[in-house]
Specification:
Blueprint lengths: L2 H23 L5 H33 L5 H27 L12 H37 L2 H5 L4
Helix pairs in contact: 2-3
């Protein structure tokens, strides 16, 4: 068995063990933990509403040809808070087997991620074609080389 296959099999076994231990470590949530989870979910919902409101305010200022720098700062601070809330909710969701609350509306970052994935797929097809062409060009160049002159022994 080659080293690569052996390492691959070992890594699959380790991954399986990690998944089983993480599932085994998950525990049921106590009422106070559920209350904390629900409180964080509520805070996240409120932060999303506030962020949407700030988005509309910034768009209105831009339409009036004004610079919404203060609103941008508020958006950034609120987005940071929202990211922390998301992380905390995800941790609690995994730790206590609680369903992650779904937001009613896809936020802009999700849309941006979908767009980026689509663009990456399109570029990947182009990159694959370019790499195939490069491979063919390299093989063609290698065919023209006279390796005999390199391999002759001097002497």
């Amino acid at each position: 068995m080659s080293d690569r296959k052996f390492i691959h099999k070992i890594s699959l076994v380790v991954l399986g063990l990690l998944l089983m231990t993480s599932a085994a470590m998950a525990q049921d949530a106590t009422p106070s933990q559920r209350a904390e989870f629900n409180k964080l979910a509520n805070e996240r919902r409120q932060a999303l509403v506030k962020l949407t409101s700030l988005d509309h305010q910034a768009a209105a200022k831009i339409k009036k040809d004004e610079k919404p720098v203060a609103i941008f700062a508020q958006q950034t601070a609120l987005q940071d808070k929202l990211d922390l809330l998301e992380q905390r909710l995800e941790i609690l969701s995994i730790r206590y087997n609680l369903p992650m609350p779904v937001t009613s509306k896809a936020d802009a970052s999700t849309i941006d991620q979908r767009t980026a994935r689509g663009i990456n797929k399109a570029f990947e097809r182009g990159r694959t074609r370019a790499m195939k062409q490069l491979r063919e060009d390299c093989l063609q160049m290698l065919e023209t080389l006279d390796f005999g002159s390199f391999l002759k022994s001097e002497g």
